[in-house]
Amino acid sequence: MIIKQYIAGPIEANNYLVADEKTKEAVLIDCSETVEKLLNDVKTLGLNVKYILLTHGHFDHVMGVNDMKEKLGAKVLINEKDKSQVEMTKTILRTFGIFVDKNPEYDEFIDGNTELKIGDIPIKIFETPGHTEGGMCYYIDGKLFSGDTLFKNYVGRTDLPGGNFSKLENSIKNILYKLDDSTEVFPGHNEMTTIGYEKKHNEIVQ
Questions:
Q1: Given pLDDT bands bounded at 50, 70 and 90, which one contains residue 20?
Q2: Ramachandran class of 25: left when φ > 0, alpha when ψ lies in -120 to 50, beta otherwise
Q3: Per residue, what are the HEC states of the chain?
Q4: How far is the C-alpha of 17 from the C-alpha of 191, rounded, in Å?
Q5: Which end of the chain is less packed: N or C, by CB atoms within 10 Å?
Q6: Residue 158, Cα to own-chain centre: how many angstroms?
Q7: Bridge partners of residue 85, in order along the sequence
Q8: Quick one: which of 129, 134, 131, 169 has its CA closest to 53?
């Protein structure tokens, strides 16, 4: 499996290009802005990006969707519970002095029962509300892409609309912490970690 990370957008979010090396089918997890390096990598590696998978609807993870969707020819998938988050994008971006014509557009709603795969590699979807009501994590070939649910030594903030700490704690303790300790975690910001490390060192959720 191929995994490439791109730090993008005004709050330096992590975007991940994940591909099946054999079939060249790929997904982009989160889409903060148009990233030329990512587009060049897709071309150089001969990848077919099937989906843009959104971990949640906050502006810093979705503001590149419209342009990248067109350039990649990919479908944009999100949890319906975060529809309202996406629809706030234009308004929130104005506070940063960024003006766009329209909100990010999505193609389909997905949830924990949705079956997706790249090549022969299944994509397991975990619904992990707390940071937002429609937050999701993606588990691909033993790797967890956790969005803003779980960070190294920290967790996603819950003081924004749709946030709920008790739900976030439940998502981490009863879903993510059930994964094998060796599971590598690729978060929505900052550096990667493992489930085992967070169980021992994350003082917010124990």
A1: very high
A2: beta
A3: CEEEEEEECCCCEEEEEEECCCCCEEEEECCCCCCHHHHHHHHHHCCEEEEEECCCCCHHHHCCHHHHHHHHCCEEEECHHHHHHHCCHHHHHHCCCCCCCCCCCCCEECCCCCCEEECCEEEEEEECCCCCCCCEEEEECCEEEEECCEECCEECCCCCCCCCHHHHHHHHHHCHHHCCCCCEEEECCCCCEEHHHHHHHCCCCC
A4: 16
A5: C
A6: 17
A7: none
A8: 134
Backbone angles phi, psi at 189, to 5 degrees: -145, 155
Q: Which amino acid is at 130?
A: G
* Cα(90)–Cα(65) distance, integer angstroms: 13
Using CA atoms, how far apart are residues 102 and 61, in angstroms rounded to an integer?
Answer: 15
- The first and second tokens of residue 146, run together, are 């956790």
The two structure tokens encoding residue 205: 């959720």
Residues 21-38 pLDDT 10s: 999 999 999 999 999 999
pTM over 0.90: yes
**Which CATH superfamily, name and number, covers 2-201?**
Ribonuclease Z/Hydroxyacylglutathione hydrolase-like (3.60.15.10)
